[in-house]
């Protein structure tokens, strides 16, 4: 069976996660803060934006993006798997990338947009 685009993105996210565990720590911290404030649902994208705003976390912003938007869905799903009492806190959709073939290309970098 060939690799799907979803598998490819998941592996890229896992590599990032291993290199930058501080991003996961911040994702959990900021998500828990919203839960503690009484939110029953929240946006994983907003949590990522807060990490971008508050911290210099992730890549260097030159050769790699600090936080790749492709990772948001994986972090949201991971959070709800790790903390099943918060299942549904982040709304998720079907990942259409599951039906697409892997690109087998390196991730884009900020230099690709210069």
State the gist of this model.
The protein has 114 residues and is mainly alpha-helical.
Properties at a glance:
114 residues, mainly alpha, 4 helices
Model description:
This protein is an all-alpha fold. Helix content is 46%, strand content 0%. The chain contains four helices and no strands. Helix 1 (5-19) crosses helix 2 and helix 2 packs across helix 3. The longest helix is centred in the N-terminal third of the chain and has 16 residues, at 21-36. The radius of gyration is 15 Å and the shape is globular. The N and C termini lie far apart (37 Å).
What layout of secondary structure does this protein have?
Elements: H1 5-19, H2 21-36, H3 44-54, H4 72-82
Q: Judging from the principal axes of the Cα atoms, what is the shape?
A: globular
Biggest sheet overview: none
Distance between the termini: 37 Å
How many beta-strand segments? 0
Low-confidence stretches: none
Task: Please tell me how large the radius of gyration is.
Answer: 15 Å
Q: How many individual helices?
A: 4
N-to-C SSE series? HHHH
Mean pLDDT: 83
Helix content: 40-55%
């Amino acid at each position: 069976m060939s690799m799907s685009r979803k598998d490819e993105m998941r592996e890229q996210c896992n590599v990032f996660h291993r290199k930058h565990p501080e991003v996961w720590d911040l994702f959990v911290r900021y998500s828990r803060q919203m839960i503690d404030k009484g939110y029953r649902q929240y946006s994983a994208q907003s949590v990522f934006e807060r990490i971008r705003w508050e911290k210099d976390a992730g890549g260097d912003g030159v050769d790699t993006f600090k936080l790749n938007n492709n990772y948001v869905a994986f972090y949201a799903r991971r959070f709800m798997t790790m903390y099943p009492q918060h299942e549904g806190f982040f709304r998720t959709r079907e990942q259409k990338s599951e039906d697409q073939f892997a690109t087998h290309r390196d991730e884009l970098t900020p230099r690709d947009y210069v």
